[in-house]
Design brief:
two-stranded antiparallel ribbon; globular; Rossmann fold; homodimer; 7-stranded mixed beta sheet; alpha/beta; 9 helices; 9 strands
């Protein structure tokens, strides 16, 4: 199971790394989660420089593609040199987006007629791109999911694991990362958010 | 306000980057949050290589020092080449630890007689090091705080902001990062966790 978390310059650390951390709870089951970038290094909105684990083209053959978020998304959706490297297939791949990543999904035409979630800052631009924005943290339809608000990355990861490995594995991953003393409550809540879309 | 988030090889991404993301909501107020490492680059437990934003010595003059967590913490607490570079002062600095970072606090003698929080894996080693471990997500006493379970990093960040800038600023930071549709509930919960320790 190859999973690409698309991460661009000026990325929001929460939006790429929460999904990364939770999905890697499935590493022992053979899942391969990779921070996937358009260049060899990218620098976050708060000045953290990271090495790409994979080039952008890794996404085209991955089983799951998650779009992270960041301050530069409005430039990325106009950048043909980046977007032309992506050739995704929602019939064969699970595709998700976090916060401003939803704008990229919309511009790539991957939302179709489905409504979407995003953060409050990106909301007007997603509407301008032609999509309906929901006032909720998570929404999915078939193989496409979107989440809004950084910490909703947890729901995006829960959805991916529940879709591909079942709710028991998703519960186990959330149980591990949840605060001590809040583990059962966290599992119950995360599953309740994604269950209507499984 | 200089804040060092100590991040070592084999680090857990959630435990360094959730605090980083939330604390950086205070960047516009002049806060300077830096991923602080013993070498120029470190690589996470899931193979992500990052550039250090600051060398370890930055922690010694920082206003706040947070110890991240990772798979190598039991080696780090035996590594005098690393620990001898740290010279922290809990009378002048806020010092916090996430998950296995609590083991480092304990070994450095910074817990004194206070009980502590950590993750379930690290718990026996923290006990072995001489500290009492609580079955809860967050505990603080004066200038020292510990948190257990990756997502409890949110509470560590909330505590730092509430201590140094007040509860209103802490609420604003959590409001921003919380899932859409769950923002008020998230703020209320995070503040309720840290309030007894302010």
């Amino acid at each position: 199971m190859n999973i690409a978390i698309l991460t661009f310059d000026e990325f929001n650390e929460l939006d790429s790394f929460i999904a990364m951390g939770i999905l890697n709870r499935m590493k022992a089951k053979g899942w391969n989660i990779q921070i996937t970038c358009p260049s060899e290094q990218v620098t976050s909105m708060n000045g953290l420089t990271i090495d790409a684990q994979q080039p952008l083209e890794f996404a085209n053959t991955a089983d799951v593609v998650l779009f992270g978020s960041g301050m530069a998304t409005r430039n990325i959706v106009k950048d043909k040199a980046i977007l032309s490297r992506l050739n995704l297939n929602p019939n064969k791949q699970l595709i998700g987006a976090q916060c401003s990543g939803t704008l990229i999904l919309s511009v790539l035409g991957l939302l179709g007629n489905m409504p979407a979630c995003t953060d409050l800052t990106t909301k007007p631009w997603v509407i301008e791109s032609g999509a309906e924005v929901l006032n909720q943290a998570f929404y999915a339809k078939e193989n496409i999911a979107t989440a809004g608000g950084c910490m909703a990355s947890e729901y995006l990861a829960t959805w991916v694991i529940a879709k591909l490995a079942g709710q028991k594995q998703a519960a186990s991953a959330i149980h591990y990362v949840a605060p001590v003393g809040e583990k059962q409550r966290s599992v119950k809540h995360a599953l309740s958010v994604v269950k209507p879309y499984l």
